[in-house]
Design brief:
Length: 467
């Protein structure tokens, strides 16, 4: 049972929720159920679900944040999109008002244990697969946080036997204080979100908070192929369990002779054949290794892990096979919102790959992509705010063309590809310049591929899908 803050109460308190997206709305509902007087504020003039919130007594303060709204609260709860450095939030903190995020709030009322997963890339796939494996083992293991439903929506159904599988981003972790995972996993760490964090060190410090409240009875899981991940995990109090796809480890989960294995002092034990992993790209095998390491700690037997992995086809927008149009394969990796994720996507494909890339740049060094592109004689179709930056940064490493819309990008990519090659949407950027989120971008890509296959404005006709 989660004992970390069992006496926490908001009954009768004035609580202001900042941000009216999914997490904020869920937090507001939970706070009302726990007896708080709740106001929700957002800069937008209208939000989804506002009538339902008003019906349960939430005061809606839309179109801006009035002076004194936060400083007059007993508690402020932030949606992940609202930074601690936002001026009104910083003012409230200086005034002594407690400030926390939705994940921190929800975690204080969970009765079950928490498995928390973070990293620059692979979080969603690892989290979803971990939940699938635990469910296959007959455990009550709801999945949420940064993926699926907000953690606040899991509180009322939480029991002492529940294992909450939670994807947590740096945005969510930076506003945690008592958040205490039983098993915490750091998959990797490369520069990301430098449009929000001051530098890589601040980003890493936010990620490190996943281990901050752990004790010796807990477990830390980390990628032994990533020195920073292992270093951060090793600074905590929990024993570290390693996984590795490339390097050799003496104990943990790794690969050998075509199998995912668990290596212990008693020898190597097979968990599943690598051939049963149905995910595109060797980097996604790392997510399988991480999920296997986590679920072995949770007591799941190897045959159960093997069954769940063999049935898992991955997530939408994460190296998702879309279609084949006259010999050209299309893959949707819209979740590749940073440079390293885009690099790994590119390295999955052979010569002649065409990459649709661009959006709102979050920071990093574009030189990371030059050699992978050059080695594949690749073509890049650049879109969005970062198009001119991409054109300049990748000149000489790839043929770069620009497109104004996703429809134009898909047509241009198809025109540049030859039969037998692949087109991958691997943006290396956030989506917010052109789309509501990465999912909307991925769906737009898939819609345009479908139109292409139906011959609407395409040079080729016919859409075939992989069975």
């Amino acid at each position: 049972m989660n004992q970390q803050a069992s006496d926490f109460t908001v009954r009768g308190q004035r609580v202001v929720v900042v941000g009216g997206a999914r997490s904020g709305v869920s937090a507001a509902r939970l706070l009302v159920a726990r007896g708080a007087r709740v106001a929700l504020t957002d800069t937008r003039a209208a939000i989804d679900g506002q009538d339902a919130l008003a019906a349960i007594g939430v005061e809606l303060v839309l179109g801006g944040h009035p002076q004194g709204l936060l400083t007059g609260a007993d508690l402020v709860v932030l949606s992940p999109g609202v930074p601690l450095t936002q001026p009104m939030v910083a003012e409230a903190r200086r005034a002594g008002v407690p400030v926390m995020g939705e994940v921190e709030l929800a975690s204080r009322w969970l009765r079950g244990r928490v498995v928390a997963i973070t990293g620059t890339k692979g979080k969603s796939t690892t989290t979803a697969l971990t939940g699938r494996i635990l469910a296959e083992a007959g455990m009550h293991a709801p999945v949420g946080g940064n993926i699926g439903t907000p953690l606040a929506d899991h509180v009322e159904a939480s029991t002492p036997d529940t294992i909450h599988v939670v994807e947590v981003s740096s945005f969510q972790l930076e506003s945690t204080d008592t958040f205490h995972p039983w098993i915490a996993a750091l998959l990797n760490l490369t520069p990301d979100h430098l449009d929000r964090h001051a530098d890589v060190a601040e980003y890493a410090a936010a990620k490190a908070r996943i281990f901050a409240r752990q004790r010796s009875a807990d477990w830390a899981v980390a990628n032994a192929d990533d020195e920073q991940a292992i270093g951060i995990a090793s600074r905590g109090l929990a024993p570290v369990v390693r996984f590795a796809r490339v390097g050799r480890i003496d104990a943990g989960v790794t690969v050998r002779d075509g199998f995912v294995i668990e290596r212990t002092s008693d020898g190597d034990a097979p968990i599943l054949p690598i051939a049963d992993v149905r995910l595109i790209g060797p980097h996604l095998l790392e997510d399988v290794l991480a999920a296997a390491a986590i679920t072995r700690l949770a007591g799941v037997a190897p045959p159960v892990i093997a069954r769940a992995v063999a049935a898992f086809r991955g997530l939408e927008h994460a190296m998702e096979w879309v279609a084949e149009v006259r010999g050209v394969r299309f893959v949707n990796d819209s979740k590749a919102t940073n440079l390293d994720a885009a690099r790994q996507a590119i390295e999955t494909f052979g010569p002649g790959v065409v990459v649709i890339m661009g959006g709102r740049f979050k920071g990093g060094d574009w030189r990371l992509l030059r050699e992978p592109l050059r080695a594949r004689a690749a073509t890049v179709v650049a879109i969005g705010e970062a198009a001119s930056l991409i054109e300049e940064a990748l000149a000489g490493a790839a043929a770069v063309t620009r497109a104004a819309t996703m429809a134009d990008a898909v047509r241009a990519a198809h025109a540049a590809a030859r039969p037998g090659s692949s087109v991958v949407l691997a943006p290396a950027c956030a989506s917010f310049d052109m789309f509501a989120d990465y999912a909307a971008r991925g769906r737009a890509f898939k819609d345009e591929v479908a139109r292409l296959g139906q011959g609407r404005g395409a040079r080729d006709e016919g859409l075939g899908t992989r069975g």
